[in-house]
Known about the structure:
By secondary structure, the protein is of the alpha/beta class. Helices cover 34% and strands 15% of the residues. It has two domains: 16-255, Type I PLP-dependent aspartate aminotransferase-like (Major domain) (Aspartate Aminotransferase, domain 2, 3-Layer(aba) Sandwich); 260-359, Aspartate Aminotransferase, domain 1, CATH 3.90.1150. Helix 1 (16-24) packs across helix 6 (241-256), helix 2 (44-61) packs across helix 6 (241-256) and helix 3 (75-87) packs across helix 4 (101-110). The protein is globular and about 60 Å long. The relative contact order is 0.17. The chain binds pyridoxal-5'-phosphate.
Amino acid sequence: xxxxxxxxxxxxxxxxxxxxxxxxxxxxxxxxxxxxxxxxxxxxxxxxxxxxxxxxxxxxxxxxxxxxxxxxxxxxxxxxxxxxxxxxxxxxxxxxxxxxxxxxxxxxxxxxxxxxxxxxxxxxxxxxxxxxxxxxxxxxxxxxxxxxxxxxxxxxxxxxxxxxxxxxxxxxxxxxxxxxxxxxxxxxxxxxxxxxxxxxxxxxxxxxxxxxxxxxxxxxxxxxxxxxxxxxxxxxxxxxxxxxxxxxxxxxxxxxxxxxxxxxxxxxxxxxxxxxxxxxxxxxxxxxxxxxxxxxxxxxxxxxxxxxxxxxxxxxxxxxxxxxxxxxxxxxxxxxxxxxxxxxxxxxxxxxxxxxxxxx
Length: 360
Ligand SMILES: *Cc1c(COP(=O)(O)O)cnc(C)c1O
């Protein structure tokens, strides 16, 4: 069997143990005589899978009962609209930090539904840093304060979370949920598309503090209404059944790795392996300010666009694939989510050194 090291930003590599279990259970899930894909979402067998997946997520992230955990569809992008529709009060406003393309997109989408203020932006430096935050600029009466904890395209991460007092912090964690320990109690809402660090595409996880429920605008579609979805256990309509099952298998694997605490150590080690090569080199350039470096998406360039392309091609020939940077930034991006083995990162680090020697 041929397996590459896939550094794609999402959909992305998944734990082999999870894929193998899924393969084994494909035709006959535990004596049910059918695939999980073929099961009614209202069946006992499926409800058990669903409940177990939610319990695993609660355990891994230490999510208390005061939070609702939702398994929805529509991606993180669907939540760009859901957030203002669920949280903005009549005549109220929200503060946004523009730290990247997805943060910017979330802000633009939210403007359809009410007054949105941009409290800080690093757009003018092409998002190579998280913008400096000045608490004096925050609106103490805002309905919520919005951040993107890891900026997938540019490779930046908040070194520390902003202090927003009584204003609920809302976080897009699409590319670093389950990669490091977060105190969920710091957040009003944390949400993520699953396809980067949780499981396959099609599932969107929303974790919302229950006291924030009950304020959805009347125009809010039912499928994006967190209150209705909480009441219905995420099953107002058919949930993304197979994606939830797969996410559960990935979470089981993560638990075996020592949970989020365990994987965080490995993730730091993996990221350091690549940043060490970059810092020791006068061939590669890592544009992100050190303090804000992502542990999930490592972005860099060679001295020229031609060499960037040659790097991506030569790496692919060695089974190191999907390293091309996002079209907005160019260069090279190595996404090293939880499921990327240390071995794969080691191989990439060695390849980088070899490519430098050969092309300097
Ligand atoms: C990928 C990504 C998104 C978009 O996710 P979709 O599920 O495709 O809508 C939003 N925010 C961040 C931080 C991302 O990495």
